[in-house]
Amino acid sequence: MATKPPEWQKYKVGKPSTRKGWTETDCVPFKKVTHVSHVREAFRMFEDQTIRSISVGSKGKLKHTAVVWLSPNSWANGSRYGNVSFKLDWATLAKDQQFYWVGAIEYEKTTACQILITREHHPELDLYPYDTDDGPLYYDSRHDIWYSNQRNITCEIMVDRDLPLSECEMVSFEDHHKHYCNRDGSNCPDLEQSDEDGGSKLLGRLIGQTVLHRRTSLRRLLLDGDKLHKSAGYGWRRILDRFSNVKTTGELSSNDAPAQPVVLAMLDRFDRKRSVKELGSLFRSKKELELTAREQVAAAFDIPLKNVPDSGDE
């Protein structure tokens, strides 16, 4: 009687592209993986300095296991997981780990292939042969290159431990998918939210609640040298755009003692979709409001004020 082939063979990688500048979607080389979350959860991760593992659920072979979900996939049509992307080095995560096949979940237009990496023994699962091109995740040891099949496939990698943010290399922002959310389905309030909007809300809350002041090592995740990196910069410009619509009728200047707490409150409210107009109106000009906001960004990230864009910068 013939042995049934393993499930992962249905989703095996193709062949690497031989065309210069071209990548086959069923054989995508990668070095980084990401954990993508919604703004609210991402803020908590910054507070905790950790991406906490969560229970897989009450059913299935891993019902007593808590994991962090990662993926090498990119999101051309927007992420189903949220707006905030934590990037990690894959080779470091995969070193000295065992790989187990958890299963494949068929959706309407895509398939999620789930693979557990762990140092624990899981006799209830099949070991996954990552060093052969027999499944959706493949390590070419000869050339030291990892590949994943991303042709209508999402490779969901499960890590059975908390991941401290010290292991992250960068935090950037993604568009949220227009119609789908893995957390809240069609009820997700962030459906179709742009990367700039998601970035502005996280930045505003991190600065407004002075989380970065207390977590100085995490500043680097949003910086490129002594400037905001490109993705964070887009989020900051969205905040500037919002503040530029505030009608200033008060007396506050950037040198006045109340200016700082007023702007911090505005930034914190930005994330929560509460009006900032009343607080902003306390300033005597939009120029003074913007300068105070830029000063708070410079202080939060410990970067020169001149490196924080103003509304006149392109």
Residue stretches low in confidence (pLDDT < 50, at least 5 long) are none
Number of separate domains:
2
Strand element count: 16
Q: What value does the Rg take, in angstroms? A: 22 Å
Our count of helices gives 8
Task: Report the biggest beta sheet as strand number plus sense, adding barrel if it closes.
Answer: 6 strands, mixed
Which geometry do the CA atoms define?
Answer: elongated
The whole-number mean of residue pLDDT values reads 93
* Major sheet: arrangement of strands: 4-5-12-8-7-9
- Note the beta-strand portion: 15-25%
Give the terminus-to-terminus CA distance: 69 Å
| Helix and strand composition category | alpha+beta
Report the helical percentage: 25-40%
Q: Order of helices and strands, N to C?
A: EEHEEEEHEEEEEEEEHHEEHHHH
Task: Give an overview in words.
The protein starts with 27 loop residues before the first strand and ends in a 13-residue tail after the last helix. It has 2 domains: 11-187, no CATH class; 195-307, no CATH class. The longest helix is centred in the C-terminal third of the chain and has 16 residues, at 286-301. The model has no long low-confidence stretch (mean pLDDT 93). With 314 residues, it is α+β, with helices and mostly antiparallel strands. Helix content is 26%, strand content 22%. Helix 3 (195-208) packs across helix 6 and helix 6 (259-271) packs across helix 8 (286-301). The strands form 5 sheets. The chain has a 6-stranded mixed sheet, with no helix packed on it. The chain is elongated.
